[in-house]
Write a structure and sequence with these properties.
The protein has 1211 residues and is α+β, with helices and mostly antiparallel strands. The protein contains 18 helices and 70 strands. Strands 21, 22, 23, 24, 25, 26, 27, 28 and 32 form a nine-stranded mixed sheet that branches. The chain has an eight-stranded parallel beta barrel with strand order 3-4-7-8-9-10-11-12, surrounded by five helices. Strands 31-36-35-34-29-37 form a six-stranded antiparallel sheet, with no helix packed on it.
Length: 1211
Amino acid sequence: MFKDAPNRKKLILVLSAVFVSLTLLTGVLAYLSGPLTELAQGPAQSEGSGPSESRPDGEQGMDGEISEQDGQTADSSQASVPPDVSAENPAPPDASSAPPDTAGETGTDSSDNGQADEPVYFNVPTEMRGVMISAGTDYLTNGTDVSAQELATQLDEALAAAQQLTMNTVIIDTQYGDSVLFESSALESAPLGLDVTEYLCAKAREMGFYVYATYDVSTRSGGEGLTADGAALDDLAENIGAFAEAYKPDGILLDGYECADSPAAYAGYLQSGGGMGYEAYQRQVPRALLETAAAAVRENAPGVQVGLYAQAVWQNSDADPDGSDTKAETTALGTGNADTRAFVKDGLFDFVMVKNYGSTNEETARFGVVAAWWAGVVDGTDTKLYMMHAADRVGTQSVGWTVYEQLTAQIIRLEEAGGSSGSAFNSLAALRSDPGGSTTTLIQYLNDEINEQWVLTQLAVTKPAELTFTTQEQTVTFQGASDPQADVTLNGEKIPTNESGYFTIREELKAGLNTFTIEHKGKSLTYNITRIVQVIKEVSPTGKISVDGGMQVSVSALAYEGAQVTASVGGQTIQLTETEDDTDEAERDSGYRLYVGVFTAPSASATATSMGNITFTATAQGETQTMQGASVTVNKLAVMGDGAVVYVTADQAETFPTDTLNDNSNPNYFPLPQGTVDKTYGDEIVYKNGSVTKTYWKLESGVRVYSSDIKASGGAMPDQNVISDMRIKTSGSYTTVTLDMTQKVPYKVEYDGSRLVFRFQYTAETPGSVDGKGIFESASWDGSNLVLTLKKAGGFIGYRAYYEGDSLNLRFHNSPGGLSGARVVVDPGHGGNDPGAEGFYPGKDEADINYAIAEKLVADLKSQGASVLMTQPGSTMATRLAAARSFNAQVLVSVHSNTAPNSSAKGTEVYYFYPFAKQLAANISANVASALGTDNRGAKAGLYYMTRESQFACVLAEIGFLSNDDEYTKMINSKYQNRIAEAIANGVSAYLGGTSSGYYGSDDEEEGDDEDSGDEDSGDAVESVSLDREKLSMRVGETYQLEATVRPRTAENKDVTWESDDEDVVEVSPSGELTAVGEGEAQVTVTTDDGGETAVCTVKVRGDASDDEQDDEQADPEEGVLVESISISGPDELEADGSRSEYTGEVSPANAEDPGIKWSVSDPDILEISKISDDEHTVYVEGLQEGTAYLIAEGYNGSEAIEKFEIRVVS
């Protein structure tokens, strides 16, 4: 982590290689009075030319201490302090006195005298945190006319500022215009009374800083143009050698080496190019300059690191496949002719510092792209990599730099990418100015004082979606995310945010233009919203509708909340009342409310009559508006028998009442199967709602159906149907009632919780009653009405009717009694191009949250033995339901998230359509509310499409409100998503347990021919009973269905009773459903009626989720660690005699975030899991029949760990 404090240094002993450019220079001087002909021998290519030497690796020292054989340290620099400041600024300590926290690497100093090489010591920060100090910005801001004392004071202030910013390195910019800021016998020094470089080196070392300095290798005494002839190289070697020997900084950054196309470069070529070609000359000049400079530094000051001060982009990838994914206009190789990549790869430098001045989101040279590319270059070398950041761009209009946290974001990106040894900032003055608090944030982050997530959070507004728009709404809601440490203002007024920085505020809109400006951390968004006063937004029905006489017609309007709404038609005035919109079309974020009323059409006559148009009137906020609805025609008087004979073409034809007209499904009406024959009466009924037109026919059996679901048959009207036989068959999954019929007549279904009644139409004869089987206690006839009495009240979870020839099959689901063996469909709401409701944070909207919870729910259900299908997000609702039917689902849970204009709305609510799914909705709502620590709004009847299915129990769960910042914060949290998924799974388990009728048996015999019919439970005496959980943890308000297994399977009486020893802690229902009532511990005992065998589950109950929310969020230091492998131990052979064997699983690593194991078997006909321990690491398995199958263990939460253990079952 890049977080070193100042005064911390690391003494690194590294090998210094002498790379003297003697060969180069000799060749240069030898050819025609010194032209660069020898350089022409090397090709101009991206990897550079000529061989290069590598300095051998040194040995690693201990804690910065060097043993005797390591030799002597390099000479220290001695500062020459002017007389007028020497008393305040004593000479610096010897550089060999390394800081106490440094570590060392040793290298050797190779020489030509044949003597043993001596080790070289480098001062290197563990993690550089540096800042550039430059003349004109950090000192000499008013020119050079200052005294030495005043200049020293300015330099002292600069160093003090760097120390206050917790920098550990200063980088001295030694150039000031055309002058240098150090004493030189050959170069032009700035006319100052103080040697700036000497003073800064001494004072910085005294204050504990590492000291680096820049050096422009193109600076020379006299001469015009950029050249590398012998004279120029000699000058460079002499000048930089003297500089390094005199000042001995910890490192020198070589700059000014590029040879771009220019008159000066061409002049140099003409002077000394020697005919090698201009392009080749340009490529050779940078290498010659750098090699000469590096060799001179190492010869004169072996303890000084030599560094390359590199342009950000070597070459764009479109020009060279080895280049970076950038679009820079200038590049080191392409425009500067400097093969910086090759220089580093060839080991010419001890370090490289990259001028990485792009932002994290610009396209030309994105910061992260550049950093990653350079990390790849130094990988495998001994060259350290540093980044120079453009502190002077913060707050400017350059791309990405208007965001004041840009520097901090760059540090975070650098840490994530790795490969860098630290950073420096190109302007001390810019850091000191702290624009928009940018430096404060940077330093706080470097010192671990703020959260990384906050730094990266900028102002993000998810509502409203557009900056300029027109609306009829009375209010507007601003919702979004921010950095919780910085204020958010709306039109200059601070608005409240929560601890995560989320905010939501609702503002009234006046008629006309409304302007709002939101500001945060230097970013502002201005909204121009024009409100048009529209009291009534839309009405229904519209267009032209045809109704039958006496029919009750529903009318509705969307109008402002609190409005007075009426409708008038044909002399009638209807008062509309506000009601909750529980349809898929509901706009939950809107300030409009649904108003509903009903009028009765007049009696029909011999001809069709017109009632005129429906006129809606609404008054709100002093405004009254009207809107015209549908024109209504009353059909002529219908005569029974005049209609057409039709048959049902849809697989299942939805039915509606005949005395009302709307398109609302009715939970008291069940569908008719394909092939059913009936007769229409009256005229076709037309109902238009917006752009959707629905047409219906009434049938003589007393129902209304869609016109598209039937077709004229041309046959005879069904009459005098004979039901000649009735059979009941049961299997593990279904109880099927089969009726042999002479005609495919319609019927109506009634369900009251304890029995189902099928009222067959046009039927003259029925067979006798039979004993019950499967889920039914009995099957009897009351005239033409079939009465199916349930063994267990509430034991009906859905059915499907279908014809096979002339036999009508009524196939009912047998509840599996729990999740093991259950077939569950999980439907993540929205998805694809439909994000659903917006959250506070971009990219974390309803569809994303629904999907995350759904994935965890699928894993949880499967881990408990359920077969699970997850529907495809983004597909149509019809497609999803069709997939669920094909899957033969027993339960469907559609996962959704709520929203409201009022940010205080909160809680969990679950919708159902058919009454037999109400308990499922109630279970899930209670459990999820407890897991989320919010209000339980309960089970609610609704008209949602995904719930309007009679073949299985289906509900739509609104987990919580995305518009409530507290619930949203939890719902995007992985831990809470896990809790929610578990809560839903437990709710499904409890529902299936509560609807189970026990052992169903399996047979293929006709009930009427079986002497033992109804006695499927006959068998042996009970020997034992076990529970699926011996220990269980619950939260107050949760429910859980305990599953009891009575053995042997052939036991005659499997009835059990349940008891809790402390009902103030846990209550238990007659079916074994637990309800956590209060905190504490209780024991729940199951006892068999036959033999009094018992099993016990110890239940610990904690407070609801809000009680331990803080503890949970602070726990789990290994968040994100996944299980990598699982091992299974246990016997590899079982006997098919009903006995159980224990198997254990061990996960690695042991500190995984979720170390639980999902257990399953490859063939449930051969192996059965009878119990899983509370920690899920122990499982009990029973062999059922001969064969070989696998016991399978899998990891949770995206872990790919899976282990299969082969088990052979023998007789």
